[in-house]
Every structure is written in structure tokens, then in C-alpha cells.
Amino acid sequence: MSDENHDKELRVEKFIFDRPEAELEKIKGNPQKVLQLVEEYSRKENLMIIGPHKGQIVIDKIKERPRNILAELGCYIGYSAVLFAKELPDDGSKYYSFEVNPTFAKIAQRIIELAGLEKKVEIIVGKAGQTLIDFQAWLQKGHFRAIDFILIDHWKDLYVPDLRLLESLSLIAPGTTIAADNIYIPGAPEYKWYVEATPEERREYNSTHENVNGKSFTGRWNILYDSKAVTSTLGNGMRDDVEITETLQYLDA
Ligand code: SAM
């Protein structure tokens, strides 16, 4: 999507922020109210947000165990960042949201601030295939840890290349949970195959498919995944799946 094609998102921004100061004050610091406004707008002009039904699958997964470093590929206007970051305790847990489109990122920043979650969410602007490399270098300056939970929700043709990048950078490691949206509609068959494949099948795939993010980011075939699609019925009665992948262990390479 080009940066010019953002009229709808600017209309959502107006819908949320062009209201009397007193009304905005009542919304400020209340993530639930902010989410409701975005959902209300989405019923008029279908926004590409994960929505409350699939969102609940992700929330349940996040809450299974403590998660300190969370990330998502595809911030859009900040809906999912608000939905998931509102679940984090005030213990320094952080939600890093990667977004390529600077206009979307700006709207997202306003929405996240309105929800009062700016201390928990940091938006990283740029193509995830590049910014993840800087992110890993930055994490390495501290006490490096892999990402505990990641939502993959950007363009479908980038799911596998960016996952292989995350594997290569050890940002995904045993203990990481990966959730990927839109597995049924519009579908991400190559991604589904990849996370459900055996390590041997992935070894073959990684050696025969060059990563668009760079030759050296082959991925790590010796990660053992446990992965399955979780089905959700959306508000409009349609079905979609979220693929939930647990990273179990590294096999001896
Ligand atoms: N997670 C969001 C939510 O539920 O509210 C929806 C994300 S929307 C489906 C996909 C977003 O991914 C778009 O905003 C798009 O600009 C962004 N995107 C696409 N390619 C990207 C890339 N390579 N790096 C970072 N963001 C990307």
C-alpha cells in the first residue's frame, strides 16, 4: 500500500479526535473506550484490524504466562497495540509495534496516547525486514533476550521471510509464542506450511528459497515448533483463523 492511500485512516483519526475536549477527556486513559470507537468506525468502513473476536484468542495466549517483551509486525492505526498492551502489568513489560507506513504510525501514536498506553507501546517505523535488524542490535546492548510473544499481521507475502529473519536473529527462541493473523482469510498458506512443517522439511525449504531480506537470513531449521490454527467466528459471521505457534526447543544441528 502506498503512503498516498490513507484517506480512510485519516477519516478514522478525525472521527476519534474531532470531538469536544470534554468528551475526549472522558475517553483519555480508557483503552476499552478507544477500542470501541475504532470498532464502531470499522463497522462503517471496514478497517484492517484484528477485531475483538480473534483478538480474544491472542489475549488468552498472552495471559498464559508472564511476557516481558512483546512485538507485532503491522501496527496499522494502533488497534491491536492498544488491545494487547492494555493486558500488560506495570512491570516494565513492553509492546514493540513495527509499522512501515509513517502516516499510519502517526495516527497510531495518537490513538495509543489517547488510550494512555504510550509508556507500554513503542512504534518502530520502517520496513520490519530492516528495522528488526536494528532492534536486535539494540536489544543486544542490554541483557539480550528473545521476544516472548509476537503477532505477525502485516503483508502475507512477508510472513515467511520476516519469520526466517526473526529466527536468524534469535529474536524467536524456545519459549517464544507466535500468533499470525488472517490464516483463513485471505490466507497465508506458505506461512502455515512453514510453521507446521518438520525441521527437515524446513531445512530443505530454507536451502532452496533465498530470503528477500538478505541471503544470510536463511532461518533456523532446527527450531522445533508446535503449531496449529485456532478458528474464530467474526462479528459478521465469517470465519478466520489465527495460527498459534509455540517454539519448543532447538534440535541438535
Ligand atoms: N495489527 C493491526 C491491527 O489489528 O490493528 C493491523 C495491521 S494491518 C493488517 C497491516 C499493517 O502492516 C499495515 O499498516 C501495513 O502498512 C503494515 N506493513 C506492511 N508491510 C510491512 C512491513 N514490511 N513492515 C512493517 N509494517 C508493514
Automatic annotation (TrEMBL):
It comes from the Eukaryota. Keywords: Catecholamine metabolism, Methyltransferase, S-adenosyl-L-methionine, Transferase. It is an enzyme of class 2 (transferase). InterPro entries: SAM-dependent_MTases_sf (IPR029063), SAM_O-MeTrfase (IPR002935). GO terms for molecular function: O-methyltransferase activity. GO terms for biological process: catecholamine metabolic process; methylation. SUPFAM superfamilies: S-adenosyl-L-methionine-dependent methyltransferases (SSF53335). Its EC number is 2.1.1.6. Belongs to the class I-like SAM-binding methyltransferase superfamily. Cation-dependent O-methyltransferase family. PANTHER family: CATECHOL O-METHYLTRANSFERASE 1-RELATED. This is catechol O-methyltransferase.
